[in-house]
Amino acid sequence: MLACGERLARVVHVLAELGIADLVADGTNSVIDLAAKSGSHTDSLYRVLRCAASVGIFREEPQQTFQLTPLACGLLSSHPNSVLPLVKYNNLDVTRRPYNEMLHSVRTGEPVLERTFGIPFYQYLREEPEIGAFFERFMMHWSRRMVHGDFKDLTFPGHSTLVDIGGSDGYFLANLLSRQPELRGFLIDLPNVVANAPTVLREHGVLDRATLVPGNFFEVPLPTGCDIYLIKAVLHNWSDEMALALLRRVRRTIGDTDARLTIIDQVLPPPNQLSHGRLLDMDMLVLFGGRERTLEEWTRMLESAGFQLNNRPGHGWALLECLPGRFDG
C-alpha cells in the first residue's frame, strides 16, 4: 500500500475535482447518474470509486451505487473540516512537480522548487496570479480552521495591543479582537494580501481597532510599544537562519519592555509517531527550504533569538508562549 500511495492520492484528487461527494450527499448514488452530472465516463468513474471504496472512501452498495463514509465526508465542500483545499493544493503543478526531484533535496539539503521552475516559490506565486490567488485562499482556509478549532478560545487578558505578523487577510486577528473589546491590533502582510483585510475586519465589527501594515515582515518596521507579538503558521516556512532573523527582529522591537511573543506553529511529537507535521515537513524540505521543529529545536532557536519558552506546548499545531530573555543584538 505504501508503494501505491501516489495512485491513491490521484484517485482522491479526481473525486475532489469532480465534486463526487457533494453529488452523493445531494442524493445522487448510482454511477450512471454520478457520471452524467460530473461529465465523466461511466465505467472509468466506477473503477475510480470502487478503488476509493476499497480504502473506506465511499461505500459501494449493490447495482453500482455508492454512499458517503466518514472519510468521504472530508471531501464535502460544506464540511467544517473539509480537505478539499488541501487536496487541490497538493495537486498544483508548483507543489507536485518538485517531488520528482525530491532525491536532490535529500542529497543536498536544498529545496528543489527553484531548480524545477527557475524561481523561488513566492516569486512563482507573484508571476502566476491565478495560482497565487488560490494559495492565498488556501492560507485563509487554514486560518479559519485554526480560529474554529484548537484556538477558538484564545485570548490575551490584560493586554491592549497585539501585532499579527504574517496574518494574511486578518481573519484570525478579527476573531481575537471580537473576543476582547479592549484589544487593538496591527496586521502585517504583503500588500496584495492585506488588501483583503478591511472587508474581513469590517464584517467582524473591528475595523476601527485594527491598523494595516502592508509590507514584507523581514523589512517593514514592526510596530513598537505593543504587548503581544503573534507569529502564526509562518516560521515553519523558513530555514533556521531566516526564522531566527525574524525572531531577532521581534526581539529588537520588544527591547527592554515586558512585551511577549506568541507563536502558533507545528511542534513535532516524539519519534515513531505518525503526525501531519512530519508529512508537512516534506513540503518544507522540497518546496520552501523550511522545516517543522521539535520542542527541543524550538527551545534552542528561541534562546538564540533572546527569548525563553514560558509554557510546555503540546504537539501538532501548538501555542508557544515566549518571554524576552537575554539578548545581545
Automatic annotation (TrEMBL):
InterPro entries: COMT-like, COMT_C, COMT_dimerisation, SAM-dependent_MTases_sf, WH-like_DNA-bd_sf, WH_DNA-bd_sf
Annotated catalytic residues: 236
Keyword annotations of the record: Methyltransferase, S-adenosyl-L-methionine, Transferase
Domain O-methyltransferase dimerisation: 5-77
GO biological process terms, semicolon-separated: methylation
Taxonomic path: Bacteria, Bacillati, Actinomycetota, Actinomycetes, Pseudonocardiales
Transmembrane segments: none
Keyword Acyltransferase carried by entry: no
O-methyltransferase C-terminal domain ranges (all copies): 100-308
Coiled-coil stretches noted in the UniProt entry, renumbered to this chain: none
Identification of the protein by name: O-methyltransferase
SUPFAM superfamilies given in the database record: S-adenosyl-L-methionine-dependent methyltransferases, Winged helix' DNA-binding domain
Record GO terms (molecular function): O-methyltransferase activity; protein dimerization activity
PANTHER family: O-METHYLTRANSFERASE CICE (PTHR43712:SF2), PUTATIVE (AFU_ORTHOLOGUE AFUA_4G14580)-RELATED (PTHR43712)
